[in-house]
Amino acid sequence: MSPMPAQPISPLDGRYRPAVTELGEFLSEAGLNRARVRVEVEWLIYLTSHEMFGSRRLSTEQTHALRQLVTEFGQEEIDELGVLEATTRHDVKAVEYLVRRKLAALGLGDVAELTHFACTSEDINNLSYALTIGTAVREVWLPKLRALIAVLRERAVAHRDDAMLAHTHGQPATPTTVGKEFAVFVGRLERVLAQIEATEYLGKFSGATGTFAAHVVADGEVDWPAVSREFVTSLGLDWNPLTTQIEPHDWQAELYSRISHVNRILHNLCTDAWTYISMGYFTQIPQAGATGSSTMPHKINPIRFENAEANFELSSALLESLAATLVTSRLQRDLTDSTTQRNVGVAIGHSLLALDNLTRGLGEINVDTDALLADLDGNWEILGEAIQTVIRAEVTAGRSSIADPYALLKELTRGKRIGQPELVAFIDGLDIGDEAKDRLRVLTPAAYTGVASALVDHILR
Predict the structure, then answer these.
(1) Which residues does the annotation mark as catalytic?
(2) Which is it for strands 171-177 and 163-168: parallel, antiparallel or unpaired?
(3) C-beta separation of 210 from 204 below 8 A
(4) Sign of torsion, CA 252 254 255 257?
(5) What's the domain range around 305?
(6) What DSSP string runs through 259-328?
(7) pLDDT by residue (tens digit) across 91-107?
């Protein structure tokens, strides 16, 4: 058997690549290296613009040419870095050598020694990860989440009045509305969304053990912490003054925990939607040319929700592992975070894939109001809650002497199916006021939804 051409191992780089390809722009080795080049270039520009150590200020054209090393970073640079790293066995050192080569080509060899000046590789790496992760989350993942929330909000409004039998513990319970249940997910997601949007992307730039030791020896007159702060914030990041060799990654742990929280909420939505489909509350819209089963032609399987459910699980497993492990580093530095952080794109990629499938799935279902009403009409015993509550109010108001309203309704309804005639006859015989009897006689399961419809307004404010 002849060997196959090289194939991707991860399904994110194979079968599912179209759904996650945008992440590769940032959360790939090439994306990371482009960010590293950016940090090295911007540090060089910063040092020369302040004429540090007698360096000359670069011209506008030279500064532009340096920044083009980032904007025009492509396959040629990717290949060159591969060759350099094969020799250096050090990814950041390879980037430094690449930048030095580019400086020579641009006629800027006189400032080459300011490349990677007073930096440890983690100074470059932590800023690069903060830049790439922040951009990927803000420009790729969050728009997908916001789009999904918009779909859920539309569903909530459209179905706010569609009464549905609830099922607490899997058993018939006080009705709700389809729209209110969608609104619950909107409310949950928007709370975590606000936390993610407020994420601090922290960066350190303070040398080998976070003490600015080499910096001070090079020039003890410079306020190096102030320089570090100014440089880090100029990249659009938040400055962390207290670190070891590495930025401690607490912001990453917070971010990944919150993205995982979103995954868990949406996993819950997937399982609920799947269940409503199996109950006939939601119907699936046939997609032209699609096959549900290789042997049962009638089937439309809820594959979008199943795919999303599984990928949310995978994403959360990785994100929670990242959150747990990245916050620990032996003494002032170990290298466990190096290989771990290379999986951030995989973790967020599975979440992005799940968001895509869930959004598509929600667009391929309809609410079967006839099925909802039929189920409500078959469960009149759920009004036992309403009746015993009204009796309690009547007892409190002095219009009834019934001793134990709950026990009375429990005897009538628990584990039994009763219909409207039996309930009306029971109400007629109750020791309560006429106005209360009138209210209960006209009550139906479909009308027993409280203010469910009005609650949807909370997601419109």
Answers:
(1) 169, 293
(2) antiparallel
(3) yes
(4) positive
(5) 122-287+299-368
(6) HHHHHHHHHHHHHHHHHHHHHTSEEEPPPTT--S-SS-TT----HHHHHHHHHHHHHHHHHHHHHHHTT-
(7) 999 999 999 999 999 99
The span from the CA of 369 to the CA of 309, in Å, is 26
pTM of the model: 0.95
Nearest to 163 by CA among 366, 375, 363: 375
Is residue 164 classed as helix, strand or coil in its secondary structure?
Answer: strand
Q: Tally the domains of the chain.
A: 3
Residues belonging to the chain: 461
Q: What number of other Cβ atoms are within 10 A of residue 297's Cβ?
A: 8
Last residue of one domain, picked from the residues 331, 349, 368: 368
With beta carbons less than 8 A apart as the criterion, state whether 376 and 390 touch.
no
Question: With contact defined as beta carbons under 8 Å apart, do 82 and 75 qualify?
Answer: no
pLDDT recorded at residue 210: 97
Domain termination residue (choose one: 320, 346, 368): 368
30-45 pLDDT tens trace: 999 999 999 999 999 9
CA angle, residues 203, 204, 209, in degrees to nearest 5: 150
Burial of 114 (0-12, 13-18, 19+ CB in 10 A): buried
417 and 329 together in one domain: no
**Domain CATH for 79:** 1.10.275.10
Could you give the 3-state DSSP secondary structure of residue 459? helix
Do 112 and 127 lie in a common domain? no
